From TrEMBL, chains A, B:
<dbReference type="InterPro" id="IPR036390">
    <property type="entry name" value="WH_DNA-bd_sf"/>
</dbReference>
<keyword id="KW-0418">Kinase</keyword>
<dbReference type="InterPro" id="IPR000600">
    <property type="entry name" value="ROK"/>
</dbReference>
<dbReference type="InterPro" id="IPR036388">
    <property type="entry name" value="WH-like_DNA-bd_sf"/>
</dbReference>
<dbReference type="Pfam" id="PF00480">
    <property type="entry name" value="ROK"/>
</dbReference>
<dbReference type="InterPro" id="IPR043129">
    <property type="entry name" value="ATPase_NBD"/>
</dbReference>
<protein>
    <submittedName>
        <fullName>ROK family protein (Putative glucokinase)</fullName>
    </submittedName>
</protein>
<comment type="similarity">
    <text>Belongs to the ROK (NagC/XylR) family.</text>
</comment>
<keyword id="KW-0808">Transferase</keyword>
<dbReference type="GO" id="GO:0016301">
    <property type="term" value="F:kinase activity"/>
</dbReference>
<dbReference type="InterPro" id="IPR049874">
    <property type="entry name" value="ROK_cs"/>
</dbReference>
Length: 396, 396
């Protein structure tokens, strides 16, 4: 089952592989223009890559005068597995070496069932994708988890919503099971990498990606690279205080952002609005389904329910307040909003924007787009594939 | 007056120069160990650097067996000018190529007098340092200003406390006057670089440096490099909101950190405490001097004045609250507190610490030192020299 995927021998080869991953098939001549290598040196490195089987020749390139050069592309049989473990579901996808999604499965699952149950499910899903003929084996797998990760070892650390995962050797265990290299990261970082590779942050080097789901987190990209912080907890903005004497939070403090706005807080607020009679639309949905979630708040807001709209606006104001501070601090080129709660759409975005544009200095917001993510649940799995491809496409 | 300082011809030479700057004189053999260059290639590059005059041979190195090698050091005649323009005073220093301060002058001056008056003063101070025999000329100058800077051009942009400086070509103008290369940056970034080069952040790659003076700003160092943000305003944390319906701020918003705690806000609060009779110690100092500043608050606190202590504690709580958010977001390895208000010392630090350790997640604060800067007003001028040396010691 273990595939012996070759690794690039040096930094030049690594750069060539990433260039082909991000830009698709290319001619030798154009690759030479893009990376600063002499023609002869480039030829040597490309020939060596051809020998490893990581790249293949792919027909003649368009003529630029003189002898026509061969197009080069990444081996069409390379396969990455992208896994995004959320609080309440698991996404598993297969991509090719250009990180195009060939197949994508989603399964509801509570992360609190613990690593053994979740891994079993992931392996099943991967097997199903393989059985569908999408992959013979995997050249690497990227895994996202909803909590902080000690990145070099691929181990979750004190993840608040993942009891049973603290210190579990996710990287090592899954690498054994899958028979390929594995890298593990926080799910929010992977969303940022996904939007950077194939979504709204394409070509942007410095941006923030705020994920509002069961919890709230922020992916930070600096100079094209994810900033993970000294212990891997960078971006953990859910426990920034938004209210001096605010609601009690699961972390033990009061007034944390997550305690006031996140999937969980919103569900609470929606239940209250339904039961108190303030929201006829939510009351009707509660009666029909026996429970409520962010989806119901979105639906109620869509039919003009005032209480639902107010919940979204208030939440947007609070997230916006925190983002305003981050924008002043970090001065990003772009802010991406993603995660389950983005079903709340324009109302949410509008109140986030008005807070940021009002509270941050004009110099930091003058050219600052604040936009919804483009890839939805695909961002995480593409980010996961990107993570492991960065590893596989670097010198061993 | 213009000195024709040579520049390194390639990245290897640049790295050798910075190694000698940061580590002092060194043998060829040891430099070879530290940068990944073959013995023969290293010999070639060192010989070329000797030809430029940027480095000189400096006696025999300690024996490591075999032929003894010559020590190499940066040319002893190289001189950098470090200038730190504050809101209320100007610091000018001369350093050698290892960024050791050879002479340092400080002059009270209001930055609002505008660039022409301030430049005149700087040139006078530089001339005085030259007349004292500390430099024949300058190989480069670094300039810090108390506001955001469009870094590539060296131009202040919309600096709130620097009317008359907006868009002024500081880099170009001073480069003309001084006859050497000039780089301009925000004063807080320079403080961070100074503490990194010679102070408490030595060898730390990811840290925050919070400067509390007339205003409040934060230098952000990521992977050893200053993060300036997409428009150069990163670190502008003085206008993060700390109070929902707080004090009116000069920026037009309410409840900004600076409106509640900074040199200016503290002076206001001290006056009020003196006049209202809450602080006998401050009242006595006001009567004696006719005015009050942070220094007086520190002195009153030192003799146990309850109102002064409370002002410091309250201010520390507010700064601490903002820093707690930044720590959760950025997960730094170290937080440095500097600037004029650090005269408030341990009381201030204690309340900052208690806020951060209470509000940020344990994972981010588990190994997080929060310390006072070590270099005081020298940090800025060393940072300025470091900035220009990075430029001079890079390929033209």
């Amino acid at each position: 089952m273990r595939r012996m995927t070759a690794r690039p021998a040096n930094a030049h080869q690594a750069r060539l592989l990433r260039l082909l991953r991000d830009g698709g098939p290319n001619s030798r001549a154009q690759m030479g223009d893009q990376i600063d290598l002499s023609r002869s040196k480039l030829a040597v490195e490309v020939d060596r890559l051809l020998e490893t089987g990581l790249v293949v020749a792919d027909g003649l390139a368009a003529s630029r005068g003189g002898r026509r050069s061969h197009n080069i592309r990444l081996a069409p049989g390379l396969r990455f597995l992208g896994v995004d473990i959320g609080a309440t579901s698991v996404d598993v996808a297969v991509t090719n070496a250009e990180l195009e999604v060939l197949g994508h499965l989603n399964h509801p699952m509570d992360v609190r069932e613990g690593p053994v149950a979740v891994f079993e499910r992931i392996l099943e899903m991967a097997a199903k994708l393989r059985a569908a003929g999408l992959a013979e084996g995997f050249d690497g797998a990227g895994i996202g988890v909803p909590g902080p990760v000690r990145f070099p070892e691929g181990v979750p650390v004190a993840p608040p919503i993942m009891p049973g995962w603290d210190g579990f050797p996710v990287r090592e265990a899954l690498s054994q099971e899958l028979g390929c290299p594995v890298m593990v990261d926080n799910d929010v970082n992977l969303m940022a990498m996904g939007e950077q590779h194939a979504g709204v942050a394409r070509s942007v080097g410095d941006f923030l990606c705020v994920k509002i789901g069961t919890g709230i987190g922020c992916g930070i990209v600096v100079g094209g690279e994810v900033h993970r912080g000294v212990t891997g907890s960078a971006g953990d903005i859910g426990h920034i205080r938004v209210e001096a004497d605010g609601r009690a939070c699961a972390c033990g403090n009061k007034g944390c952002l997550e305690a006031h706005f996140s999937g969980a807080a919103l569900t609470q607020d929606a239940l209250e609005a339904a039961r108190s009679g303030r929201s006829p639309a939510l009351a009707a949905r509660l009666e029909a389904a026996g429970q409520l979630s962010a989806v119901d708040v979105a639906a109620a807001a869509a039919v003009g329910d005032a209480a639902a709209l107010e919940l979204i606006r208030e939440g947007g104001n609070r997230v916006g307040q925190v983002i305003a501070g981050l924008v002043s601090f970090f001065n990003p080129a772009l802010v991406v909003i993603g995660g389950g709660v983005t079903g709340l759409g324009h109302t949410l975005l509008a109140s986030i924007r008005s807070q940021v544009y009002r509270q941050s200095l004009p110099l930091a917001t003058g050219n600052l787009p604040i936009v919804l993510g483009e890839l939805g649940p695909t961002a995480g799995v593409i980010g996961a594939a990107r993570l492991i491809s960065d590893h596989v496409f670097s010198p061993a």
